[in-house]
Amino acid sequence: FTLGYALFRITSDVEKLPFPLAPITAKGVTALAESEEESWRWRCFTIGSTVGIAFGLIYVAMPTLTGVFLDRPLYLLPVPFVDFTARLQGIRWLRAVPLALNTNLNQIFLGFVLPFWMIVARFVGGLLGRLVLNPILFSRGVLQRWQPGMDYIETGVANQFDFWLSFIIGTAIAVALLGLYEAFTAFLEQKRSGRAAGGRLMAPPEGRGDIPISVALLSYVAITSWTIILAHWLVPKFPVWIMAAFGFGYTPFMSYVSARLQGLTGHRIGIPYVREASFVLSDYKGVDIWQAPLPLSDQPGMGALSFRQTELTGTKFTSIYKAQFFTIPISIVVSLLFWSFIHKMSNIPEDYPFVMRFWPRDAILRSFWMTATTTGNSFFLQAFKFRFVGMGLGYGLVLYPILRLLGAPTLLLYGTISGLAGDPMNAFPQLVAALIGRFYLAKIFGRRRWGEFTPVLAAGFGCGIGLVGMVSMGVRLISNAVSMLPF
Hints:
Strand content: under 5%
Number of helices: 18
Distance between the termini: 56 Å
Largest sheet: 2 strands, antiparallel
Strand order of the largest sheet: 1-2
Number of strands: 2
Order of helices and strands: HHHEEHHHHHHHHHHHHHHH
Structural class: mainly alpha
Radius of gyration: 24 Å
């Protein structure tokens, strides 16, 4: 509500960024709010929710509910993805290549919604980029941590520390610099046009419920200052200047980068392991700093997206403020009750596929970083390589003017960067959906009409699979909470 609102004003009102994912939520809400009679939005939402329910019964309900009364749950589809990495490692030009296919149908609906050229660029960056580069980097000894037999997740983690961590940091810096340049250019253009029209700079539309940007920024400064004071009281030996750099330097900077990428591509990006690197480089000893409430986040970038969604629904911002002030205290209390209940009820079962795939990786990485401030582990310093950072920075700064000179959309640059930073297993289904939507369905319904259909269909699909997941997990939680007596 503070920095996120200011970023919304910059990216939406000044730069006029499209925010391609914002219409999904907005049009889904609009469809539910309209009358059921003679509403194409309602029909599209119903079709999407029907597909979501049908897919959710296979993808979510079957493994969740069969796990209640069977020793092992049943799967009709691999969850959450099909892993081809270990099977194809014998092929020489597929060594160190993470190959998997996401089996969640939501990637198809994302491919319908997101801009076509951004999807193409994301496919090139996320799949072909790593498909071509990883074997070359492995043959030249850059990818040293990869070993035959590693699966998709293990391969991705090993390659990340050898090369992609540093390269993505460089591309993130390039996105930030280019974003500042384009924002400054747009700011000057609006300033000139505002003077010519005799209007005020960045004047918001009437009746939207806007607040002065100065109030939002001063509120952010006050809240961030309080967070720094609290963190310093909890961890008094950690340098205060690092906390201040987080709150007043990194967070505003990367939040703007995230907001701008959300506005352009629907994808967010951040500089990886900034928090971890700062702890290690500060020479602080102890694990308490890892739990301290530091003002380090790019969540205000998501806040800009949220304000754009609210604007599309026609809801006043003041109404959102009132609703949040009412619900946040309730949600804090209720969340603590439910967390306590679920924690005491039983352990997380081992047959949860997402848990089995991702939690071991996350737990190992988290414990590894937390011990770095107690054992003096310099693993991050070994993984961070300035030459690869420079390569990523040069990639963004060189390709941008080339695209401008050729008259090509700069969305291609941001798409490839988001593909390199994102998950390669999502690239192929999104591309297939984008091709079907652009060259088949758009011709049947018309490009403009199809563009109106897709966000509502995606919103309906999310609602349908969400309802199935909620009911399935409710049954699972009740089953786990019941204690069987021996008589």
